[in-house]
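User: For my dataset I need records formatted as: sequence, then structure tokens, nothing else. Please produce one.
Assistant:
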Amino acid sequence: MKACAVIPIHDHGDTIGEVLAGLAPAGIDCLVVDDGSNLATREILERIAKEHHFVEVLRRTRNGGKGSALKAGYRAALARGFTHVVQLDADGQHDPRDVPRFLEAMRAHPDALVLGVPIFDASAPRARILARQISRVLVWLACHSRAVPDPLCGFRGIPLQPTVALLDRERLGDWMDFDPELAVRLVWEGLPVVPVPTDVVYRIGGLSHFSLTRDYPRLALLYARLVVGGVRRSSALRQRAPGASGIR
């Protein structure tokens, strides 16, 4: 296994330095995908890339969304010879000291999707917790199992070959709908899921790009499509099963 980190960023100049400093002891390269950030963040990233040899910045001229940035990061990592990616956010919600635990799980299960299971403290907004619970249930319905412990957690380990192959075949969302859709579709592809509990902190005054008016409708439409797709997929699998009606 040859792993690197991929961090999408849009205007998180105030927190990315701390995230990368925490990542440094893991001893892996990091691709920071700058998704059309402001000038201040771009300047911070340029300085960090000069100071830290393990950091490479991939610059995107316009903001295309978290999912779009992650797709670019996965493809860039694969092109550089990496087999796996540890994905985490730039806003400081994820603890980079947990990266070695994700790497350990990825080495033990190289064909698996490693998903962070968030452990929230008192900083987590109640509305977000409720929304995550609803997301869990809808994803369980889509997967016909509880394989995905938390579809929205962006701290995860990605096996690149099956993921990029999926992205070459299917059109996945470009925004906050990307993470849950990728998890469900990789489960549909037959990938096992390995959960890794990890602390998640909502920082006071932290910059969040989650939009109630933009992302909730996208997620609602996504979950509706996934649940329907899960029903159709389950029906098709039953029809193809040995002994099913119409099978010879």
